[in-house]
């Protein structure tokens, strides 16, 4: 009897951790910083959100290119993988057909890199949210 | 809407936001996060300046 009670009390936190370990990275990918916010790391989440969204929006503003799913050039494939990291921002850009401008000046190429890096930084933020969820990081 | 940043200001903005994310994700406590973020920012900008001067020297 005592053993079954102990097992129950151990099983409950484990369930919570595994749920958060799935939820935090998923939400964090969709909305940058949200994976931290749902774990009550408000300031970290806000800073991540502002940093990643600003980089992405600046990239679009600089007439950067959004990569679509493709099976062509390896650099295009890598660009797509980077862009996908931005989650909802990437999906919204595709839906609104943003990031399709012809590269007419030098800084437009910087814009493309800003967008890719925003996605890659969000991948790092997602991994961090996961580490917090499993208790590997505070 | 088109945003036009010159090369240095683009590097500055990039360094700032990338450093914030690196600081938060690569360190455990707040103090270390701030220190590592500042370190990354200085390294990014230092790298830009060193690379810029290196290219200037190579061009001459």
Layout: helices, strands, pairs:
The complex is a heterodimer of chains A (138) and B (60).
Chain A: H1 2-30, H2 34-37, H3 42-61, H4 74-84, H5 88-96, H6 106-133
Helix pairs in contact in A: 1-6, 3-6, 4-6
Chain B: H1 7-26, H2 30-59
Can you describe what's shown?
The complex is a heterodimer of chains A (138) and B (60). Chain A is 73% helix and 0% strand. Chain A is built from six helices and no strands. In chain A, helix 1 packs antiparallel against helix 6, helix 3 runs antiparallel to helix 6 (106-133) and helix 4 packs across helix 6 (106-133). The longest helix of chain A is centred in the N-terminal third of the chain and has 29 residues, at 2-30. Chain B is built from two helices and no strands. Chain B is flat and about 45 Å long. By secondary structure, chain B is mainly alpha-helical. Chain B has helices at 7-26, 30-59. The longest helix of chain B has 30 residues, at 30-59.
Shape of chain B: flat
* Broad structural category of chain B: mainly alpha
Count helical runs of chain B.
2
Mean pLDDT of chain A: 88
Number of strands of chain A: 0
Task: List how many beta strands of chain B DSSP finds.
Answer: 0
Task: Report the helical percentage of chain B.
Answer: over 70%
Q: Cα distance, first to last residue of chain B?
A: 38 Å
Characteristics:
heterodimer; A: 138 residues; mainly alpha; 73% helix; 0% strand; elongated; B: 60 residues
Quick synopsis:
The complex is a heterodimer of chains A (138) and B (60). Chain A contains six helices and no strands. Chain A has 138 residues and is mostly helical.
